[in-house]
Each structure stands twice: as C-alpha cells, then as structure tokens.
Prior knowledge:
YaeB-like_sf, Elongation Factor Tu (Ef-tu), domain 3, binds S-adenosylmethionine, three-stranded antiparallel beta sheet, YaeB-like, S-adenosyl-L-methionine, mainly beta, tRNA (N6-threonylcarbamoyladenosine(37)-N6)-methyltransferase TrmO, YaeB_N_sf, 161 residues
Amino acid sequence: xxxxxxxxxxxxxxxxxxxxxxxxxxxxxxxxxxxxxxxxxxxxxxxxxxxxxxxxxxxxxxxxxxxxxxxxxxxxxxxxxxxxxxxxxxxxxxxxxxxxxxxxxxxxxxxxxxxxxxxxxxxxxxxxxxxxxxxxxxxxxxxxxxxxxxxxxxxxxxxxx
Length: 161
Ligand code: SAM
C-alpha cells in the first residue's frame, strides 16, 4: 500500500539538518470529521462541514473581538508529514514540482493555512468551515482575514501612500 511516507518515482529527498527549536506552541487542537488523510479534502471549502478549533483554556481571552470577522486565517501543524522532499510528484500528474511550488503537506515546516468562514464562537471553541486537516491536528494560530483587517495603529512613517 502506498502511504504519504513513501517516496514516488521522480521524487527527490535530501538529508536535512536536525531542527532547531523555533519554540512553537500549539494553542489547541482542531476537531474535524476527517479521521485520516484519505478522508480530508485537498483544500477545505467554506461550504464544507463544521470543524472546531478547541483552544487550551489559557488562550480563551485571546478570542476577544474575533467574532467581528466573517473570515479567519487558520494556521495548523500538519504533524503526520515527512519533511525532507525537495521535489514531489503529485498523484495523478506525470509532472514533478519543487516543494515550494506546491501546497502539499510535505514540506520542511509542515504549516497548513486555510481561509475559513466563522460560524460561531462558544466557550473557547471556534466553529469554522473550510478546513482540510485530520481530526486532532495541532492548532498554531488564528488571525482575522487580512483583507478584512484594518490595522489598529496608523501607518508607520516609512510606509508610502
Ligand atoms: N490548506 C492547507 C494549505 O494549503 O496550506 C493544507 C493543504 S494540504 C494539500 C491538505 C492535505 O493534507 C489533506 O488533504 C491531507 O491529505 C493532508 N493532511 C491533513 N491533515 C494532516 C496532518 N495532520 N498531517 C499530515 N497531512 C495532513
């Protein structure tokens, strides 16, 4: 059986240096209806199923004001990915691509991002639509969609316009 851990013909891996600790903190866990990779969509859709961002209680106050945004940017850690491929051969495609030309979960730092629709916030849980990750995927960050976000401070003097 082929798994994501296998390497396909034409794919290329490299020896990678041991990771230096970036001191990332997981802020919670993502609950989705997708038990494994095969069940996940390739990219989430905002008309997809409800998913829950379950934050550790210490971060509950950090949700204040988030309800003002219809669309959020979610960052997550695709924790079951290998991290050493530089060239990949996507399934059902004869061509090969450099890792940075893809949105594959296989990358040196397996950070996934999605623009999701906010459904509701209740008791430290943010219900959203538009995710594509396995149930239990670690949550890295939540931000308002940048196109809807007005900076809270005036432009810096170095900014034009
Ligand atoms: N939307 C994100 C992005 O563009 O950065 C991720 C896209 S990636 C193509 C989504 C795929 O990653 C899913 O279809 C599934 O195969 C895989 N995946 C989901 N959760 C994962 C996890 N926790 N670890 C590794 N792979 C995962």
